[in-house]
């Protein structure tokens, strides 16, 4: 007899992958950051940050840096909760020790469990293809089939529209993943920019997000600036944008002078390497080529910044 899976997801993107696969009812626990679908918010929380997540971007960065320099993990796995939940599968990640509980943290936690040895599935996507492969890998581990065709069709629809746009009509785009210190959005984000008809600057497809200097941003002088801080919603992103706008050379940027600075809900979309990266692509298409694309995300997933 096949045992029904009891899944604990320790990263929001994995939770959304499980939901996409039709297995949301099999989730028994979540991370402190997992909030979609809404039903998971009633599940026991299995992780917590070891730092105060409230404050400016600089404050948060400094607290996390101090933890890492002390050779401590940034998050705690609640082993007592895992023990009580008796999961058969735990989904985690090995990509970023700052963004969420990582594989090493989970392995240490599991070593202390006495009643079970759950299967750990660790995700580490760097590109859109990696994300789709992760969906298929999670599906295989959980004994279901992943139908990626609807997602891939939406990606193809965007790409088909934008691939005929001449290079000269493709604006340069810089996406900001952290405000202080400055960080560009890497990994899959430059790929989404290119698919949406832009020319990505200051970050490379499949490479981790790089720290930036203001001089580098000024030299790139993008046509479009998209602000998508990791873990922040639109309201919190606006605070970071207002802080950025106080820089003495902010108003020299072409994107600022032409009114093409945009805020996004990076937490719900761009920072989550799961099914909603397709929504993120469509948002970028709306932002970069508004005359060609209207998906109705404005005011929900993104908005214009006039500061």
Give the second-level CATH assignment, the architecture of the largest domain. Answer: 3-Layer(aba) Sandwich
- Our count of domains comes out at 2
- The helix count comes to 11
Structural class: alpha/beta
Report on this model:
Helix content is 35%, strand content 15%. By secondary structure, the protein is an alpha/beta fold. It has two domains: 136 residues, Rossmann fold (3-Layer(aba) Sandwich); 156 residues, Nitrogenase molybdenum iron protein domain (Rossmann fold, 3-Layer(aba) Sandwich). Strands 7, 8, 9, 10, 11 and 12 form a six-stranded mixed beta sheet that branches. A four-stranded parallel beta sheet has the order 2-1-5-6, sandwiched between helices. Helix 1 links the parallel strand 1 and strand 2. Helix 6 packs parallel to helix 11. The chain is globular, with a radius of gyration of 20 Å. The N and C termini lie far apart (61 Å).
Secondary structure layout:
Layout: E1 7-9, H1 12-20, E2 27-30, E3 47-49, H2 57-69, E4 75-77, H3 79-85, E5 89-93, H4 103-111, E6 119-123, H5 128-142, H6 149-162, E7 172-178, E8 183-184, H7 189-195, E9 199-200, H8 214-220, E10 224-227, H9 234-244, H10 254-257, E11 261-264, H11 277-288, E12 302-304
Parallel strand pairs: 1-2, 1-5, 5-6, 7-9, 7-10, 10-11
Antiparallel strand pairs: 3-4, 7-8, 11-12
Helix pairs in contact: 6-11
């Amino acid at each position: 007899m096949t045992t029904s899976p009891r899944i604990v997801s320790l990263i929001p993107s994995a939770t959304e992958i499980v939901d996409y696969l039709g297995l949301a009812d099999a989730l028994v626990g979540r991370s402190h950051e997992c909030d979609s679908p809404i039903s998971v918010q009633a599940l026991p929380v299995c992780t917590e940050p070891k730092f105060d997540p409230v404050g400016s971007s600089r404050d948060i960065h400094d607290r996390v840096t101090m933890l890492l320099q002390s050779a401590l993990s940034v998050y705690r796995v609640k082993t007592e909760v895992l023990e009580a939940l008796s999961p058969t599968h735990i989904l985690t990640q090995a990509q970023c020790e700052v963004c969420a509980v990582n594989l090493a943290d989970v392995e240490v936690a599991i070593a202390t469990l006495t009643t079970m040895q759950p299967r750990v599935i660790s995700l580490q996507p760097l590109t859109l293809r990696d994300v789709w492969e992760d969906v298929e890998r999670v599906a295989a581990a959980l004994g279901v089939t992943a139908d990626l065709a609807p997602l891939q069709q939406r990606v193809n629809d965007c790409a088909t529209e934008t691939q005929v746009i001449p290079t000269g009509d493709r604006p340069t785009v810089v996406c900001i993943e952290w405000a202080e210190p400055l960080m560009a959005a890497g990994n899959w984000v430059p790929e989404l920019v290119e698919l949406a008809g832009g020319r990505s600057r200051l970050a490379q497809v499949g490479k981790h997000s790089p720290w930036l200097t203001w001089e580098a941003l000024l030299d790139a002088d993008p046509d479009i600036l998209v602000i998508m801080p990791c873990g922040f919603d639109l309201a919190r992103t606006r605070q970071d944008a207002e802080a950025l706008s106080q820089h003495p050379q902010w108003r020299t940027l072409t994107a600022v002078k032409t009114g093409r600075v945009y805020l996004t809900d990076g937490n719900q979309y761009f920072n989550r390497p799961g099914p909603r990266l397709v929504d993120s692509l469509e948002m970028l298409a709306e932002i970069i080529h508004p005359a060609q694309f209207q998906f109705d995300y404005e005011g929900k997933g993104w908005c214009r910044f006039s500061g």
